[in-house]
Amino acid sequence: MEKQWRIVDVLRHSRHDWLNKIQLIKGNLTLNKIERVYEIIDEIIGEMQQETKLTNLKAVQFAEWMMTYNWQTRLISLEYEVLGDECDLSSYDEDLTTWSSNFLNLMEQQADTHDENHMSISIEVLSEEVKLFFDYSGTIKDKDIIVQWLRRHQQHAAIHLESFDIHNNEMTVLIKIVF
Length: 179
Hints:
By secondary structure, this protein is of the alpha+beta class. It has helices spanning about 5-30, 35-55, 60-70, 95-110, 145-150, and strands at about 75-85, 120-125, 130-135, 155, 160-165, 170-179. It has five helices and six strands; from the N terminus they run H-H-H-E-H-E-E-H-E-E-E. Strands 1-2-3-6-5-4 form a six-stranded mixed beta sheet. Helix 1 (about 5-30) runs antiparallel to helix 2 and helix 3 packs parallel to helix 4 (about 95-110). It is globular and about 55 Å long.
């Protein structure tokens, strides 16, 4: 079960993240690494633009889950990007959050504490559908468990599993929502 964040928890995490970013900038300024400072600022701007795009999808639970995922100690680090224009996914919010959260929980069970495990989610907004591309690199203890789960959950309300490809240390999964 996912942690329910109180406002004070969110503000604490946000303040901590921003202090880290400011300290990184300050440290690079002290070392007179001006180019690196500009790179860090560009990275921050990119992250904020992606958060804006994510929240503009109007899937509040899903956005909250994605934006706070890395705030807890996890075996998998998560990053995301939103491609395309904004759309209203509010009617798909619960299904999208449930499917994605359950899938990442499954992947956490397959990950190894001794490896770097990373999941990247690309959300492509098209005129008649939204595609979510899950790209995983890291430990996969038992591919069969993942395949069985995907087959059992290939149709979850509005979520349609389009394809998946699993190898020893990497996996791709494509799901879509059709309007």
